[in-house]
């Protein structure tokens, strides 16, 4: 198994807020930490693709429920056997 000191650069792409880094160990071993935001600048591109009709999001809504049936909608969303991708509650 490789030790942490083997790496010169570590990429933490989704660190938890409570994640603690061993900064002294990293500093002593000259390990650089680079944090990144994976979805930076992706929303405008996605909006353009949907607005331009290149991507159709309608098939992703697999189940639709009336507001009165909201409890059933949450039950479907919570049950993997139902195969729900997106459950929509409509008013």
How would you characterize this protein structure?
With 91 residues, the chain is α/β, with parallel strands linked by helices. The protein folds into 2 domains: 4-35, no CATH class; 56-90, no CATH class. The protein contains 3 helices and 4 strands, in the order βαβαβαβ. The protein has a two-stranded parallel ribbon with strand order 1-2. Helix 1 links the parallel strand 1 (9-12) and strand 2. The radius of gyration is 22 Å and the shape is elongated.
Tell the overall outline: elongated
Rg result: 22 Å
Q: Specify the biggest β-sheet.
A: 2 strands, parallel
- What is the averaged pLDDT score? 81
In terms of per-residue confidence, which ranges show pLDDT below 50 for 5 or more consecutive residues? 1-9
In N-to-C order, the SSE pattern is EHEHEHE
**Count of runs of 4 or more consecutive helical residues:** 3
User: How many independent structural domains?
Assistant: 2
| Total number of strands | 4
Helix content: 25-40%
Percentage of β-strand residues: 15-25%
Distance between the termini: 55 Å
The side-by-side strand order for the widest beta sheet comes to 1-2
Q: Structural class from helices and strands?
A: alpha/beta
């Amino acid at each position: 198994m490789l030790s942490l000191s083997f790496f010169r650069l570590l990429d933490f792409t989704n660190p938890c807020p409570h994640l603690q880094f061993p900064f002294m160990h990293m500093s002593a071993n000259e390990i650089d930490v680079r944090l990144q935001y994976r979805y930076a600048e992706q929303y405008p591109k996605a909006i353009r693709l949907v607005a331009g009709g290149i991507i159709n999001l309608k098939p992703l809504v697999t189940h639709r429920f009336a507001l009165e049936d909201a409890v059933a909608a949450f039950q479907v969303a919570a049950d993997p056997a139902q195969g729900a991708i997106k459950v929509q509650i409509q008013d």
